[in-house]
Structures are given as C-alpha cells and as structure tokens.
Amino acid sequence: MQEQIDSNILEYLNITKGLYLILDKNSNIIFANEQACKILGVSQEKIVSMNWVDSFIPQELKSYISNVIKEIANKNMQINRYVENEIVTLDGERKFISWKNSFVEKKGEVTQVICSGEDITEKREIQKYIEEKEERLKAIFDFSPLGILISDKTGKMIEANLAFLNMLGYSQDEILGKSYLDITHFDYLDLNEDHFNRLIDNEIGMYKITKRYITKNNELLWGNVTVSTIKNEFNEILYVLAIIEDITQMKTREEDIIAQRKFLHTIIDENPNIIIVKDYEGKFVLVNQAIARLYNTTTEDMIGKSDGDYNLNEDQVKHYLQSVQEIMDLDETKVVYEESTDILTGKIRYFQSIKKPISDRYGNKQLLIIANDITDIKEAQKKLKDNEEMIHHQSKMAAMGEMLENIAHQWRQPLSVITTSASSVRIHKEMGTLSDDFLDEVLDAIVKSGNHLSQTIDDFRDFFKPDKEKVRFNIKNTYKKALFLVSSKLKNREIDIIENIEDIDLYGFDNELVQVIMNLINNARDALEESSLEYKYIFIDIYKDKENNIILKICDNAGGIPVNVIGKIFEPYFTTKHKSLGTGIGLYMCEEILVKHMNGEISVKNKEFEYEKNSFKGAEFTLKIPILEPLEN
Questions:
Q1: Is there a contact between 157 and 149 (Cβ–Cβ < 8 Å)?
Q2: Which of the listed residues 81, 251, 390, 594 has the most CB atoms within 10 Å of its CB?
Q3: Is the CB of residue 91 less than 8 Å from the CB of residue 41?
C-alpha cells in the first residue's frame, strides 16, 4: 500500500518528530512513519500488516476509538482538532498521544484516515504531578529556607524553588532542562552520579552528601544535600526530590530561625486557649493574649508578675499557686478543672487545664499550662440537664394522670358496691325488714370492696415509688404488674393480648421498666382504637437471647407507623396524636430509661405477619436489656 503514496511525502513524514499514521476505514495501518514505529516498538515493514485498534489501543478504549475512526470515515466528526488518548506499545507500555485527525476522499467517499500525533506522556506526567502537589509544593517552596529541587529519573531538573534559584543565581526558565550534573562541581561528579544511580536502582532509599555547586556566575557554593524519591502506589519511582541547605551563608540560616520563632510566637499568641508558663513562685514567664484578655492587661505587662497582681479573688490566687507547686513537686502532668474571674466583666469562667512540668534551657523548673475555656460547655450542659429534668417531671406528671385515671376505673365497681349496699341497708331498715343475715352479707360485701380499694392504692403507690437502687426482679411479674395498671383501659375494647412469656430474673430498676411497658401497651391500645379492624391484637413476647439479654417485644396489628415519622418517634415532644391526647415525651422517656438507666436498647419497625390464617401489619417495639448481676461485696 505504501507504493500508492508519493515517495517524497513518505520521506518527509519519516523525518518529522511527531507520529504520523495513515489508516483505512477499518483501522488497518497503511503507513506509519519512523517516529511512530519507534514509539510503538515495531518496524515499518511489520506494522503495515497490523490493525491500529486491535494492536495498539487499550482494551477499555477499543470500542470508543473504533467508533471515532468510523465517524471520521463517515464525515460525521469534526476534524483538524486535537484529541488525546492512551495507546499501548508492543512492549505493553502505555503512552498518551495528542492527535489531530483528517481524511482523504475520492469521488466524495473517504478512503483514508490521516492521524498526526505528538507523544505527550512525559508532559502529562509532569502536569499531573504539578497539579497534585501544587498546594503542598507552594507552601514548601514559599516558606522553606532550604533549596528544593525536583528532577526526573534521568536527573533532568523539572522544578526548583526560589531558595535554590537564589543560591545559584538562575531563573526558573534557565534551570529547567538542565541535569543536576550540569551544576555540580567536577570534583563531585563521580560521587554524586554513583549515589544517584543507586537511588534510581532502589539499592538505597535516600542519601545525604556534602558537595559543591557551581553558580551561574561560576562561584562555588557548599551545600548539604538530602536526596530521596517520590513513588507511586506501586512503589515505582516518579521523581527525585533533593533538599539543599546552603552552609556558606549562616546568616540566612540564623534569620530563618528568628522567623520560625516569630511564627511560633504568633501561633501561641493567637491561640484561643490560655497558654502560660510559670515558675515555682507562680510568676509568669510566658503568656499569650487569651490570659491577657482575661486579666484585662497586656502580655508584656504580665511577665514577671503573678495572678495576685490582677485577680482580687484571694481563694483563686491561693489555689493557683498551690496547684503550681504541688504539680511541680510531683513532676507529673495533670488535668485539672479551675475557675477564674474575668477582670473586665467580673464573671466566673470555667477552665479545663493541662499542667505539665518543663525545664528551660538552663535547667530551671517551670510549669506549662494550657487552659481551655469550657464556660459555654458547662452552661450548655446545665441547660441540657435542666431540660432533661423538666422532661422527666412532665413524664412523671403524665404517668400520674394516667394512673389517676386507672385508679378511677379500678375504684368505680367497688365504690358502686359500697354505695348500693349502704342504700339497701337503709331501705330495709326504714321498711323494718333488715335482718341480721342480710346485714352481715352487706357488711361482708362492703369490707371486701374496701379491701379491694386498699389493695388498689398499694399497687398504684408502689408504681410511684422512685427506684433508688437496682434490685433483682422477675420480668414476668413486672410485665403482669404493668398490665394490671393499664387493665382498666383495656377492658371492653375488644383487644386480645397474646402472650409468649418466659420466666426470667434480671437486675435493674423494676418500677422504671413497668413505666416503659405501660407506655408501649398504651400506645398499642391507642393505635388499635383508631383503627376499624375486626380483630385487634397486642402480642407480647419475652425471652432470653444467646448473649444473655432479655428481649421484650410488643407488637400490634394497627397498620404500623408512617414511614416519614418512624425515625422521629423517640425525639422529645414528637407525637402523632392530637395535642389533647399526647405530650410526645412517652417514647422519649422509654428510650432514656432503657439506654441511660438499664444499659439497654429500644428499637421499632413496621412488621407484616400472619396470625390464625389472617395477614396483619403493625408496629413492633423491641427492648433489649442486659441481664446484669449485682457486684459482690
């Protein structure tokens, strides 16, 4: 096919620096110039028999490149614009090529696709490195007093920082492209090259040498050089990094140390935490702006003085000095909580302080204090505690209202018996028909009803007794107690309780768990009352799992909880009920009791299930409570 192309054109294409390919419409290679063959690793004779896409395009790009060539052949793609893609050489090496495509047509039909390209692999690698490291290198280059030089694996310099350029007197453009050997004094060429080659061959991980450089003005400059490599995730060397210290200009180094100290002082001074260094007598050796603001003075004024010169609270001042001397005597780092008076406002502020004994360069003992102002945190904690106490109180009041209503239900029948019996006695007496037997029968009924009222009072009184200490109790009895306390509201509601309960003892707060169970049963009852179901059930399952936890599940068939609110039901004051029916603290308190008081968990999900050949859906609450044993004395 090459004979079909003018020999003069071929000769020209072979001497061009770029890649040049001529393909037919099926991606078969008609011609490749010498530069293309060199990069691809194949001879001009052999390449003519190869398909461009099959032989030199990565697997993940084959389909895409094939379509591109077809689109060019069909004149459906804009030509004469640059595109970039990867190719694979015959040796498996990947390279990036920037292409500009065109075509040859005869009688309106494309016969050949012309591809001219440039190998931009090295440029892309350099660009990628610069982009990835730009921010970090900028900080290093801008602030480092040391010269920093980056070269490729051949030693050709890619980038140098200002410090290094100033050392040698070159500009960035002048230094780029030079080899590190070009600026190395001839006495150190062999030594430097030997170390460099061993580094590239991975025989050593880094090296340090002292060498002389030749500046642009042919002056000599001594440098301490540390050279290492930058590798990719496959442990392949990408670049060589050299850090050069100019040891001919000690003044520059001293100025840098001063600058670093100033920077450190700025960090200390601008730190929002109080930073202090005191001596054994409590005098300030170092202070920052935070403590100066607290004492309404300046940092300069505080040096050599003590807390008593600013703080009028003698107890605080005495405590500070005692704390300094005790910790320095113990020679131990301590974390302490202290109060201090804001001199400007008179307000007491709270601090968490780390106090660490240190020594100055002369060996004198001092104390470093870093104090974090936690006043806002303590105030937020107090507010949170107050809110929790209020929620607990509201919960108890809601429970009390519930209990009073239950007491009324429990008392209604025995009170009716008592009043009816008393009225019956009076009628019989007025009619003269009151017999001793009838009187005894009536009195027995009144006594039984009175005992029932007394027992009811005892049962409900036990519920209101706060649990001050953990006790051993039986989960089955606790459940029965909770069920009894809400039984009056379950009567005549056509709600069946389906129980599957194991007899298990555990250690914890009995009455608080009663409150949780009552709350969950009441919620299930309310949900069922709002439904129009023919069959209404509450399922109670209590058992012990393999991890020695009690699992208590309460499930109804009321249709479940809406998906958009199920994740919020344990939040305080969140309720799905009407304002007159719910406060939104019941489930929040259940979670508080389970998690904080009993180290347990509570969760909820909507569940679909079958019972007696009927399908139902409802909300299932699961309580997981560790079976803890009391510690032996």
A1: yes
A2: 594
A3: yes
Note the pLDDT tens digit of each residue in 304-353: 999 889 888 888 889 889 988 999 999 989 888 887 877 777 788 888 88
| pLDDT, position 348 | 83
**CB < 8 Å & 24+ apart, contacts of 421-428:** 421/445, 421/446, 421/449, 422/446
Dump pLDDT digits (tens) for 376-421: 887 777 776 666 666 555 555 555 555 555 555 555 556 665 777 6
Short-list 563, 452, 574, 449, CA closest to 523: 574
Res 633: pLDDT: 41
Long-range contact set of residues 31-35: C-beta below 8 Å, sequence gap at least 24: 31/1, 31/2, 31/5
| Nearest alpha-carbon partner for 542 in 554, 556, 560 | 554
Q: Phi and psi for 68 in degrees, rounded to 5?
A: -60, -50
- Predicted TM-score of the model (pTM): 0.37
Write the DSSP assignment of 327-343 as a string of letters.
Answer: HHHHT--EEEEEEEE-T
CB 620 within 8 A of CB 429: no
Contact assessment for residue 66 and residue 55, using Cβ atoms and an 8 Å cutoff: no
Counted residue by residue, the chain has a size of 633
For residue 505, the number of C-alpha atoms closer than 13 Å in the C-beta half-sphere is 6
Which tokens belong to 238? Answer: 């990408």
Q: At what angle do helices 436-464 and 510-530 cross, to 10 degrees?
A: 100
CA dist list (Å): 456 to 32, 481, 572: 103, 12, 32
Give me 56's structure tokens: 């030199």
Strand, helix or coil at 270?
Answer: helix
Compute the Cα dihedral for 598, 599, 600, 602 and give only its sign: positive
